[in-house]
Amino acid sequence: MSDAVLIAIDAGGTTVKVVAYTLSGVEVASETAHVDNIHYDDGRVERDFAPFWAGIVSALRRIVQDCAGRPILGVGCTGFGNGIFLLDEAGEATRPGIVSVDHRAQPLVDRLTTEGRAEALTKLTGNRIWGGQTLMVFAHLAETEPEVMARTRWALCCKDAIRFKLTGQALTDPTDAGGGGMMDSLAGTYAAEALEMLGLSAHRHRLPDIVPSDATAGRISAQAARETGLPEGVPVAGSMMDVAACSLGAGAVGPDILTMIAGTWSINSLESTVEDISGAPILNFRYGGPDTRLIAEGSPSSAANLGWYLGQALGGRVSLEEANALVADSAPEARRCQFLPYVFGPDPKRGCFLDMGATDDAGTMLRAIFEGVAFQALRHAEEAVALSGRAFPPVIRLAGGAAKSPVWTQIFADVCQRPVEAVHAGEVGALGAAICAAVAVGVYEDLEQAAEWMTKIARRHEPNPEFATLYEERFARFRHLDAGVAALMEERPQSRGADKSREEDQ
Q: Does 359 map to a domain?
């Protein structure tokens, strides 16, 4: 079976990647499907399920052709965490899916916070509540769209909706259920008290059963086999939400590695135990064994800022390769501006260059972007470490767009003053899903063994101690400017009429 492959589906915010891997984690073939999200002026972000599934089907058919003659042993799925997809008994959507960057449920979060109930929910689930969280979106829809809920049989996360179409079985795993704020953090079951507090007890039957991430969670159905070309009966793993799949695909198993994902989102995670956790992170879920948790902090403040700058601000006149060369030629110790990496939020934060001077140029501005992304990652990492109740791990494992740039990876090492290992995998989340499938079909005994054999490091960057003080000072300046701009953005500007009235009163 040396030519056998595992198929992984990774449904992200803008694209779906379908990748075939050997049993040792080597990529054999990759196909992509474009995803259209619907962005509304009021901040809602939705995804029509039918074209989403059609794109996945098309990519699967192409990957099956790419792997012609190779046995397909198993399938793994991962997708963005939180948000929600509502399906009927037949697997058809009863409304467009809600993407995790949608914050329509934020007024509910604000109300619960004002009423003093947010803290009680956090104690039950181990996660702080926020507008795109599955639990909050589920409660919001139950309150505002009762007619839709009446037509709905299943309330599923992204990867679980895909697996339902593949197998006809509605199931989830501890990472999506826990990371979505749905699980009792200690019992490992749905948080019945939290559901009751939000008036969701009547909708409990719409939630799927929870199975281990590395267990078989259905098999390719006859209908899915006809649609996709996948062999009928092939096992499909429970798998993980993208944050966990990325950590696993990066080989970050064990307490001594902190994972930084630098893509659209800056996601920073590390393992902890139930006893160590001292607060409520944005993500907190079972990862591997029942006593092991993955703690994560993050925001949409990462490498996508560079894509915006090159594409929108510079109009494509500077390539990615040229940008890396300009940053490499911009001396770390030279004076330069600062960049706040919030082009994509979160509100009320906004991206901006600050502290500009006459010596700033394309190279210093690009270096400021690289550094701003690394600064925000370090901030989130420190937050996650503090909540985990552990010391900062000695090694950082970097994945995402920034990991593909040796210049950027070195900046991460110098900013964090720790060795940074760039992962070898091009699609680290997909590899994590394939690792789950490898264990589910019995190729490896457990996730730790599978990760050891299927993941690799592309490069290791040691921190330059000469830059420790420089970056400590620039990081402090970054945080100071960030706090000042955030305060400014939250202030309400006075109208000219109000200014005139105030002058007359004086």
A: yes
Q: Residues 6 or more apart from 157 whose CB is under 8 A from it? A: 79, 81, 82, 83, 84, 85, 134, 172, 176, 180, 241
**Domain match, 354 and 207 both:** no
Helix (H) and strand (E) counts for the chain?
Answer: 18, 22
Range of the domain at 471: 251-424+462-492
| One domain for residues 155 and 260 | no
Angle between helices 362-388 and 320-329 (to 10 degrees): 90
Pair 13, 303: CB distance under 8 Å: no
Q: Check residue 225 and give left, alpha or beta (phi > 0: left; psi -120 to 50: alpha).
A: alpha
Q: Are residues 99 and 53 in the same domain?
A: yes
Helix (H) or strand (E) holding 146: helix 146-151
**Cα–Cα separations (whole angstroms), residue 306 to 271, 297, 309, 319, 385:** 29, 21, 5, 11, 27
Q: What is the pLDDT of residues 72-129, one digit of tens each?
A: 999 999 999 899 999 999 999 999 999 988 889 999 999 999 999 999 999 889 899 9
Whole-Å CA distances, 26 to 20, 125, 207, 477: 8, 37, 35, 43
Average pLDDT over residues 359-372: 97
Residue 216 near residue 236, CB atoms below 8 Å = yes
Angstrom distance (rounded) from CA 22 to CA 450: 12
pLDDT at 496: 56
Cα–Cα separations (whole angstroms), residue 49 to 35, 62, 158: 10, 20, 10
For the cut 80, the answer to whether the pLDDT of residue 490 exceeds it is no
Burial annotation 434-472 (CB, 10 A radius, 16+ → b, else e): bbbbbbbbebbeebbebbeebbeeeeebebeeebeeebe
Per-position DSSP letters for 235-290, written without gaps between them: EEE----HHHHHHHHTT--STTEEEEEESSSEEEEEEEETTT--S--SEEEEESEE
pLDDT at residue 274 tops 70: no
Phi and psi based region of residue 126 (left: phi greater than 0; alpha: psi -120 to 50; beta: remaining): left
Residues 278 and 224 in one domain: no
Sign for the CA dihedral angle at 344, 268, 262, 337 comes to: positive
Mean pLDDT of 392-421: 96
Query: How crowded is residue 388: how many other Cβ atoms within 10 Å of its Cβ?
Result: 28
Give dist(CA 241, CA 433) in Å, integer: 9
pLDDT at 333 over 80: yes
The pTM assigned to this predicted structure is: 0.89
pLDDT digits (tens, 9 = 90+) for 291-316: 788 999 998 899 999 999 999 999 99
Domain boundary among 203, 218, 243: 243
